[in-house]
Amino acid sequence: MASEKAVKSDAGRQDRVHVPFLYASLLLGVFGGFSLAVSLPIERAMGGFDVSWVSHAQVHGHLQVVGFAGLFVLGMSMRLSPRFGRGDLAFMPLVTPAFVLLVAGLLMRALGQPLTDHGFFAAMLVAGLAAELLAALAFVLIIGATLAPALRNPQPHAVLLVGAPVWLAVQAALGMWWLTDLARDGGTIVEHGRNTALVNLQFFGVVLSALLGVGMRSFPTFFGMPPTSRPLGLVMATLLHAGLAVWAGAAVIRVVNGVGSDTLNVVGSVGAALVGVSILLAVAAFGLGRRKHRLAAASRGFVFALQPVLAWLAFTGLALIWAGGRAAVEGNPIGMQELDAVRHVFAVGVITLAIVAMAQLMLPEFASERIVNPPVPWRGAAFGLALSAAAVLRGVLPWAGLAGDHADWGMALGGGIGIIAVAVFGYLYWRARRGHVAYTQRIAAMRARNTPITTVSS
Ligand code: HEM
User: Whose CA is closest to 58, among 156, 154, 191?
Assistant: First the structure.
């Protein structure tokens, strides 16, 4: 009896393993990254561009990409890896310490970096970096061991999902190296080349890798497509990992040598273009433009969120191929403004919209909501429209050349739309979670009393 209870409580823990990740991601997004996304462009438009602005922009980037997006995809990986691997989550007792270390590391880094001229905050920055690295290594162990059977006979979704914590660890190790230098020297801004390498690893290594891993299993199902073939999936995963390794590797060599070269620029830019090619393969396999889908009636409106995710993903892939290809021919790295714009199309149009849409289609909380209190049919389209508008304001207009005050006010508006969308989604998730807990308790009570479960949804 005792061991049956233990099995049940383990299953229960696995069933809610994603919950703290999602809440932490949404809190860091709304009160950290997205708040800065609104304030930074307003500050710049009003003439407040200085060293501290750049330092806060780097804090915004880290909180958004590792905090908001990273915690979310890690939470989803914790939930989905056992299902994809058809087993239990490995090293379950490590999950909470790893989660606490990552959140503490993010907060310490965000507080420490802008204030490294005080010894206390410099030490806090270094402690934050160490915590982030330890957490990343624990996630490599947890997700790697859970998906080990699917890695041995390599399944592309496993190669992609395990890639995410591996890249998290790589960027954390590089961050530890480069930002410890910063803390020692009392600097508050990470040098541009190093920072670009870290941010690229976070965006395309941690987040893209996880999104493609989950997408490979879910998008073809949503759109009634055949599953992505194993060879195509492996080519896609290899191009992504190899392209990124080349792109970031060129930056690391430049740091080690202390000087760049045309060859390194060409190699790095080719790496970026390869990442773009892997993205286009994913888009082709996932069903861009498919009008047919297999979503249940209560989820149908989410087609209008999923199709924009794929459209923005296609934009990101094409823009990386174009920018990387052109820079390689010219012997340059990709220009800073262009890369920032493309990364934000990806950040808002793909990452944020995919988080909001896929969570509502895949999480048990929203499945319970659909049974007990189905959402309005336009919810998916509203998120699709709002976040696409934010992607245009933050990414597409600057990519097309809009600059100066007009661009900054547009970005601030995009940030405002983004923060509202994520806060609304946070509220919907909190409400669905409460409903889900009540619903599952009612079902359990009925089961205990042998009452027919069909009466529940009335
Ligand atoms: C509409 C919403 C957003 C706005 C208005 C916004 C605004 C900004 C601004 C003004 C910068 C500084 C760019 C510069 O140095 O000139 C920046 C950088 C950055 N943002 Fe955003 N952002 C938004 C959403 C996001 C999201 C959703 C993510 C990630 C998921 C993200 C990740 C980053 C990163 C990684 C950087 C680079 C930071 C660095 O230089 O280290 N942003 N953003």
Answer: 191
Q: Which domains does the chain have, with CATH numbers?
A: 14-455 (1.20.210.10)
330 C-alpha to center of ligand 1: Å?
A: 27
Return the best residue to mutate from 340, 342, 417, 422 for the ligand 1 pocket (most ligand atoms within 8 A of CB).
Answer: 340
> Global pTM?
0.95
Please tell me if the CB atom of residue 113 comes closer than 6 angstroms to any atom of ligand 1. Answer: no
Mean pLDDT for the stretch of residues 446-452: 81
Q: What residue type is assigned to position 43 of the chain?
A: E
For residue 328, give the nearest of 386, 267, 283 by alpha carbon.
Answer: 267
385/364 Cα distance (integer angstroms): 25
Residue-wise pLDDT tens digits, 361-412: 999 999 999 999 999 999 999 999 999 999 999 999 999 999 999 999 999 9
Of 21, 33, 63, the C-alpha closest to 359 is: 21
% of the chain exceeding 70 in pLDDT: 96
